[in-house]
Each structure stands twice: as structure tokens, then as C-alpha cells.
């Protein structure tokens, strides 16, 4: 009898343990999943700078789109991009010792946005300068020179960035072009990521060449952790790229792509 009671007790304990473990793991995974499905949670705060522009201009559905990776031609100079919170504040190793962590992620996002965009039928491509360190911004091989020419012929050019961490950065958002009326793609991206004023920092080099800048978010906190963690990296890159491609489609077709 004693033996049987002990055995039943053991089974009950095991059952209780398993069900507790199950509910905890479910809670944990659900939390992780929700976490990554909420754009605002993953990208952090959006720009709170006063911006009154609204993108109203219609765009052609075949509009050629060019995706640039911010700082791809300016490594080694002052404008090499943010090292990110992990490296700069907490002393982690850079993702690649030859380039800033911001460029590392800009390149990953660029590649993923173009791949997903093509699958969804966008007329989309990328440009990567072969030389990582071009001193003259007006050199024909720079992001800005190639982007400027692309925009001149009616294309939509956007340069991907991650903002600096903490009080060094502003947050996520779109900086619209300087000399052009913002269009419905701009509006759609700004609705998702937030908006910067047209005259941000006196009108930066890229917007002055009709190149949009998208700050995806500050390279810090959960965004950076989800990118650095090899278990969540691909999912995070894919999620962010998908959100950007959806914004393009919404802007072009003015409908909600869920
Ligand atoms: Zn940047």
C-alpha cells in the first residue's frame, strides 16, 4: 500500500511538473513571438520631432525602386555609422571588425528587402559600392551619386539606416526628399516608422539628392539583441524587411497588405 501511494505521489508530482513546464514554455514562446510581431516594440521609439509633411502624390505601380545601405561607401571616415549600443556601451565584439555594426545590419536589410520585394512583384534593386571608403561624396561610385541619377529618371531611392543609441539618436522614421513633394510610398512608410522633418539637420546630403532616408530604429535594446542573437536574427531581418515591402505595396496600391 505504502509502495503504491508513493508511486501515485511520484506520478502526480511528475504530471504537475510537466504541466507547469508546458505552461511556462508556452508563455515564454508566445511572449517571444508577440514581441517580434509588434513593429513598434521591436523598433523602439519613433521620431517625436515636429514634422508636418504628408505624402499625397500617387506613384506608378512599376516605379523603379533602389535600396541603398547607409554608410556603405564611408567606412573609416567620420560618417561610418553607429557602432551600436552593444559594442560602444557594453564592449561586445563588432559583428564584422572591418565595418560598423550599422553598416553590417544595413547590408543585411538591403539584401532581404530586395529579395522579398522581388518576390512580391516590385520593380526593385540594390546598389552596393565596391569601394567601402570613397572620400568624395560626389564621386560617381558613391551611394548618393548613383541614387541621385536613379531619382532623376523618376525612380524611388531609399537609404537604409539604424539610428544611434540612447540620447545620441532620434528614433525610427523617414526623412523625405528635399526638393520633391513626398509621395504615397513616403506616407505609407512614415505611417509605419514615423517621420522626420524635411529640414532635419538642415537638409542632409541624401535628401538633397532626392534620396529618402529610413531610420529603422535605434541600434540598441531589444532591436539590437534580436539582431545579434543568432536564434532570432533571421526572423528579425525578415520581419523588418517584410514590413518595409508591405509599406511599399500599400503606398503603390493604396490598400492594406496584411
Ligand atoms: Zn546611419
Architecture, CATH level 2? 3-Layer(aba) Sandwich
Bin the strand percentage: 5-15%
SSE string, helices as H and strands as E = HHEHHEHEEHHEHH
Question: Helix segment count?
Answer: 9
Question: Compounds present?
Answer: zinc ion
The CATH superfamily name is: Zn-dependent exopeptidases
| Rg for CA atoms | 22 Å
CATH C-level category = Alpha Beta
Explain the overall architecture.
By secondary structure, this protein is of the alpha/beta class. Strands 2-1-3-5-4 form a five-stranded mixed sheet. It has a single domain, classed as 3-Layer(aba) Sandwich (Aminopeptidase). Helix 4 crosses helix 9, helix 6 packs antiparallel against helix 9 and helix 8 packs across helix 9. It is elongated. It binds zinc ion (ZN). Zinc ion (ZN) binds next to loops.
Please summarize what this structure is.
The chain has 258 residues and is of the alpha/beta class. Helix content is 46%, strand content 11%. The structure holds zinc ion (ZN).
Q: Topology of this structure?
A:
Blueprint lengths: L1 H36 L1 H5 L21 E5 L14 H5 L12 H19 L4 E4 L15 H10 L3 E8 L9 E3 L8 H10 L11 H4 L2 E8 L2 H8 L4 H21 L5
Parallel strand pairs: 1-2, 1-3, 3-5
Antiparallel strand pairs: 4-5
The chain binds zinc ion (ZN).
The site of zinc ion has 5 residues, from loops.
Features:
Aminopeptidase; binds zinc ion; 258 residues; 5 strands; elongated; 46% helix; alpha/beta; 5-stranded mixed sheet
Amino acid at each position: 500500500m505504502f509502495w503504491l501511494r508513493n508511486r501515485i505521489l511520484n506520478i502526480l508530482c511528475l504530471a504537475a511538473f510537466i504541466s507547469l513546464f508546458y505552461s511556462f514554455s508556452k508563455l515564454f514562446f508566445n511572449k517571444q513571438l508577440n514581441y517580434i510581431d509588434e513593429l513598434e516594440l521591436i523598433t523602439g521609439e519613433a521620431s517625436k520631432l515636429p514634422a508636418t509633411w504628408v505624402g499625397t502624390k500617387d506613384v506608378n505601380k512599376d516605379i523603379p525602386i533602389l535600396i541603398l545601405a547607409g554608410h556603405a561607401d564611408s567606412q573609416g571616415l567620420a560618417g561610418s555609422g553607429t557602432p551600436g549600443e552593444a559594442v560602444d556601451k557594453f564592449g561586445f565584439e563588432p559583428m564584422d571588425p572591418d565595418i560598423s555594426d550599422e553598416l553590417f545590419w544595413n547590408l543585411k536589410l538591403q539584401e532581404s528587402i530586395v529579395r522579398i520585394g522581388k518576390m512580391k512583384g516590385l520593380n526593385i534593386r540594390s546598389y552596393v559600392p565596391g569601394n567601402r571608403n570613397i572620400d568624395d561624396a560626389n564621386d560617381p561610385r558613391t551611394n548618393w551619386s548613383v541614387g541621385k541619377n536613379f531619382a532623376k529618371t523618376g525612380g524611388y531611392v531609399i537609404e537604409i539606416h539604424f539610428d544611434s543609441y540612447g540620447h545620441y539618436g532620434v528614433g525610427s522614421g523617414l526623412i523625405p526628399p528635399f526638393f520633391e513633394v513626398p509621395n504615397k510610398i513616403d506616407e505609407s512608410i512614415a505611417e509605419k516608422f514615423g517621420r522626420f522633418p524635411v529640414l532635419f539637420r538642415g537638409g542632409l546630403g541624401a535628401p538633397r539628392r532626392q534620396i529618402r532616408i529610413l531610420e529603422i530604429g535605434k541600434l540598441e535594446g531589444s532591436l539590437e539583441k534580436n539582431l545579434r542573437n543568432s536564434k532570432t536574427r533571421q526572423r528579425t531581418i525578415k520581419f523588418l524587411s517584410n514590413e518595409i515591402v508591405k509599406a511599399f505595396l500599400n503606398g503603390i496600391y493604396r490598400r492594406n497588405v496584411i
